[in-house]
Amino acid sequence: MNFKEMKLLYPEAVLTHSNTSGEKYVAFPYKDKWIQLERKQKSDTELALIQYALTQKKTSSTRSAASKWQSFLLEESFALPRNEGSYRIIQFEIVKMDDTFTQSVWLDAFKQLFLNIEEAFFITETKGILIEEKHDHLLNNEEMAGIIRTLDDDFSIKTVYYIGQFWPIEATLPQIFKEEQSIFDTQKNKQAQVFGLSTIALHHYTADAIKKSPLMQKLKSETVFDAEFKELILAMWKSQGNISVAAKSLYIHRNTLQYRIDRFHQASGLSLRNMDDLLLCYLLTLN
């Protein structure tokens, strides 16, 4: 039972930020809030049933019917869910929602975006995964992002996704999934709404080493990285050194970009026309 369903049964129900249980009211924990009801004319049995219904909702939504995939990926079982094939795990998280949001309805709509779905389920109240088998008509990240924005608008929510690599069915897949979970958790607030390994690999796997390097930290402190230069470096990196493409992305003339590159060279001694220097500058702006 969710709050909307509770209101249908008990119109006096309200959400509060604290436990208001006492002689007049009884409160039940609900997500990060409390559902408050009037205590009068409610028997102990009825209150116990309400508590059970709220708990049952959470249990059934976060851990659906027994699943070979779910048990395998969460290392509850060593049995392979399939004997062959390549699959990717798409992680999702609902980062903003209101009290009308229903997991099952949204999940059914989300599944319609994909063709070869093995399974999709929530792991927690807000996080879940979808497993997709490899096929010839896959959505790329940009296509998926456009469709997801529309889906978010329809459900009045905000979501974020990590698109995993395709992997063969092997005993090591749960360990790979664990690492993909770690990547998602550490990068989800730093990336676009939909991202994958190729987007974050350099940042994710070098960030800690850069922080621990006295040389890199000293070089970073000695190099001028104001907002304009950071924007310049990022544009040049994304265009892989193509000045025309970078100028277009910044909405400036090619000559203006050339001038900014020269100014940065004078200030730092590093040339963004040189791919090695460009890579070094990009690494220095990551943290």
TrEMBL record:
PucR C-terminal helix-turn-helix domain location is 236-283
One Pfam family of this chain: HTH_30
Q: Which InterPro entries match?
A: CdaR-like_regulators, Homeodomain-like_sf, PucR_C-HTH_dom, PucR_C-HTH_sf
Among PANTHER family, the record links this protein to: CARBOHYDRATE DIACID REGULATOR
Which protein, by its recorded name, is this?
PucR C-terminal helix-turn-helix domain-containing protein
